[in-house]
Amino acid sequence: MKHDHIDKLTRVRAEMPPAEGLNQLVELFKSFGDETRMKILYALSLSDLCVCAIAELLDMEQSAISHQLKKLRQAKLVTSRKEGRTVYYMLDDDHVREIVAVGFAHLTEE
Questions:
Q1: Spatial distance between the Cα atoms of 41 and 89, rounded to a whole number of angstroms
Q2: What region does 41 belong to: left with phi over 0, alpha with psi -120 to 50, or beta?
Q3: Which of 7, 60, 74, 75 is an S-S bond match for 31, by CB 3.0 to 4.6 Å?
Q4: How far apart are CA 6 and CA 97, in angstroms?
Q5: Do β-strands 49-50 and 78-83 pair in parallel, antiparallel, or remain unpaired?
Q6: Nearest residue to 68 (alpha-carbon basis) of 105, 27, 31, 99
C-alpha cells in the first residue's frame, strides 16, 4: 500500500532553497572540515588573536596559519582589525561562534 505524502512534498519543495544556495552551504561547511581551521575557530571563539599567537598556540609556522586564515576569511568566518603593525583576527560574527558551540553541544549530548 502506498502512503500519501503529497502535502509534505509540496511544503518541502516550496521551502527548499535553490541548488546554488545549498552549494554555498556545502562550501561553508567544508571550511569546518579541517582540524587546523577548527582549532583556529575555537581559539578565536575565546579571544581575538594575532597570527603569531595562533601559531604559538597551535605549535605551527605563521605561514601555515596565515594560509588557513585566508581560507577562513574567504568563507566569511573570520575578520580582522589592525592595531599599529599588528593584525588581530576574530570570528566574523556571533553566528560562527554559535555554529562551533552547537557542534560541540551536539557531540557531548547524551
A1: 10
A2: alpha
A3: 75
A4: 38
A5: unpaired
A6: 31
Answer whether 76's CB lies under 8 Å from 83's CB: no
DSSP 34: S
Distance CA 10, CA 26 (A): 24
Rg (CA), the chain: 19
Q: Residues 46-79: pLDDT tens digits?
A: 999 999 999 999 999 999 999 999 999 999 999 9
Nearest CA to 36 out of 8, 57, 13 is that of: 57
Provide the percentage of residues in the chain whose pLDDT is more than 90: 90
**To which residue does cell 557542534 refer?**
103
Cβ 18 vs Cβ 24: under 8 Å: no
Query: Whole-prediction pTM value?
Result: 0.87
